[in-house]
Model the fold of this input.
Amino acid sequence: MSKTWKSSTLLVVVFLMVEVVATELPDCQCLLGNVNCDDDKEANSNLAYLQDNCTGRCKSDIECQQRFFQLEQMAYGCSGESIPLNVLNAMHTFDTECEHCREYRPEDTTLTDCPQIQCSAEQINTAWSNFVDDGCRNNCQQNSCEDGFQRLFAAMFMCDPAEVPEILKHNFHWVEAHSCTEQQCNIPREIDCTSSANTRFVVTYGSSEESGLSSGAVTGIVVGAVMAALIIVVGTAIVLRRRKARDSVFLDMAQQYQT
Done:
């Protein structure tokens, strides 16, 4: 096997692994453990570090990414009044700079489940416009406001941050803390710390105690994923090589027949 083929295989393996997890967000809880909502000084400290050190380098700097994960976990895992509003709004300036993790609010048996929402910028923009047009931003007591807010609540927690319009990100936390404190809903919780979305980050950011995984288990999962992808690539290469050899034989036979 040539060095060139080995390099190509490695690139394909990495490409396959990235493609598998590209549409999934890791769970903050798997990376960081349980959220702490009682320390707003930590939120301020993390934001200050991001602003001073991480512009343009969040995804390539472990400390920057760790700080953003911690800040995002507090922003979504804690109630609207727990974290200073200026911190929550400023955090969103790093939305395109950093990787994201998903955090859920504790389930409340007195609340209904959030409605389904299509995760597209157009649909979420429409939901926000309807919410504002109905006069719900400053007064969430009207009948239409509860359903409207719950759709926005679901979008913030369930959709990829890249799909959530900036205008909603910068208004949601205020609306939740001041207007719609009693209109929340339960987000379906699906946490699997052994999923590929989590294991690619747990190796770097998570501890075995926080994630519920031993270091050996994490290593085994990652190595298994690499080997599975490698087997697929090698198997495909062998099939293609055999097909090429077969076609060459048929071509030689056809040329001999013509002569």
About this structure: The two ends are 36 Å apart (CA to CA). The first helix runs from residue 3 to 21.
